[in-house]
């Protein structure tokens, strides 16, 4: 899931302001999810700390009672922008997150594919290493777009994460990962990722035929959005930088609490937006490292990113 040079916002560099302590400094408590009124929908002010969570796909399996049945990923993030059209958040380096592992502690990406979605799981705390991630979610779209940088803010790539449209609640947003991902380079070329996991999840009964068709449809729509360089790709988000005084959000003890006061819930795919004939812009600079949706781990080794994979890198 993961800016833009054309359209209504052409040439505009997104900027926001916030106050707080320096990023990476010892974290002091701050109010969660302060909001501004936006008609019938409460909006979070820039700098607010919220939770970005994913429900376990295995919650659909009858009789399941282990940790796979609830939320299995939780990432405290800082709100960059929240409008009726777009939610943008920053996942800072050093953020303590929740990730799933097998019940014996084996990281999911190291488990055999055949067992990855059938064996019992639990959740553990982990610290997000490497560079931070900017997450962009267009309202009701069945994907989010993530932006990655190399050290020194050299832009690497966009990453389209196929997922259920996010459900807003007082403390953040909830979604469910749909396994397929799309790496997008600055020149508009793409690479499909994790198709093997998509197929394995179906064999394990985590996704039925109707949902498979819906996810495939969402993938093709995401590819068209990239080919036509529609928002958020054309909005210069690759030039964005976090405020230096933003603190690293804390992971609350009740990170898996039930969502209260939902604001918007959508499960159907929205109508296809109008197409734009303009091609993608020429890249500013070709990435010098893996551009296939990879984020370096603590040792600087890149590997493909997936919400179901260890968040230590991420």
Q: How many whole angstroms does the radius of gyration measure?
A: 18 Å
Q: What are the segments in which pLDDT stays under 50 over at least 5 consecutive residues?
A: 1-31, 34-40, 64-68, 262-272, 281-314
Total strands: 15
N→C terminal distance: 14 Å
Number of domains: 1
Mean pLDDT, all residues: 76
Largest sheet: 7 strands, mixed, barrel
Strands in their spatial order, largest beta sheet: 3-4-5-8-9-10-12
Quick rundown:
The chain is mainly β.
Description:
The chain has one domain: FomD barrel-like fold, CATH 2.40.380. The protein has 314 residues and is mainly beta. The longest helix has 19 residues, at 209-227. The strands form 4 sheets. A 7-stranded mixed beta barrel has the order 3-4-5-8-9-10-12. It has a two-stranded antiparallel ribbon with strand order 1-2. The model is unreliable at 1-31, 34-40, 64-68, 262-272 and 281-314 (pLDDT under 50). It has helices at 113-116, 195-203, 209-227, and strands at 35-38, 41-44, 49-55, 71-82, 86-91, 96-102, 121-127, 133-138, 143-150, 154-163, 167-169, 172-184, 190-193, 294-296, 302-304. The chain is 10% helix and 31% strand.
């Amino acid at each position: 899931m993961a800016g833009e040079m054309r359209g209504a916002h052409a040439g505009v560099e997104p900027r926001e302001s916030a106050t707080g302590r320096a990023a990476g400094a010892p974290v002091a408590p701050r109010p969660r999810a302060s909001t501004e009124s936006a008609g019938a929908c409460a909006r979070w002010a820039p700098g607010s700390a919220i939770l970005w969570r994913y429900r376990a796909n295995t919650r659909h399996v009858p009789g399941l009672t282990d940790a796979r049945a609830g939320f299995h990923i939780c990432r405290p993030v800082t709100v960059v922008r929240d409008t009726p059209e777009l939610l943008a958040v920053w996942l800072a380096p050093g953020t303590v997150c929740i990730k799933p592992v097998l019940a014996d502690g084996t990281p999911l990406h190291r488990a055999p594919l055949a067992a990855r979605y059938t064996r019992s799981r639990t959740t553990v705390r982990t610290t997000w290493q490497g560079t931070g991630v900017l997450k962009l979610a267009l309202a009701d779209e069945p994907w989010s777009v993530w932006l990655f940088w190399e050290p020194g803010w050299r832009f690497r790539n966009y990453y389209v994460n196929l997922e259920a449209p996010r459900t807003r609640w007082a403390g953040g947003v909830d979604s469910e990962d749909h396994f397929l991902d799309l790496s997008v380079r600055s020149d508009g070329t793409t690479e499909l990722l994790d198709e093997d996991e998509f197929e394995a999840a179906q064999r394990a009964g985590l996704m039925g035929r109707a949902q498979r068709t819906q996810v495939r449809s969402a993938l093709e729509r995401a590819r068209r959005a990239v080919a036509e360089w529609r928002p958020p790709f054309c909005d210069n988000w690759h030039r964005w930088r976090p405020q230096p005084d933003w603190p690293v959000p804390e992971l609350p003890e009740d990170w898996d609490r039930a969502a209260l006061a939902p604001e918007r819930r959508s499960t159907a795919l929205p109508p296809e937006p109008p197409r734009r004939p303009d091609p993608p812009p020429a890249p500013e600079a070709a990435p010098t490292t893996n551009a296939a949706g990879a984020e370096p781990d603590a040792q600087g080794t890149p590997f493909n990113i997936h919400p179901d994979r260890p968040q230590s890198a991420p």
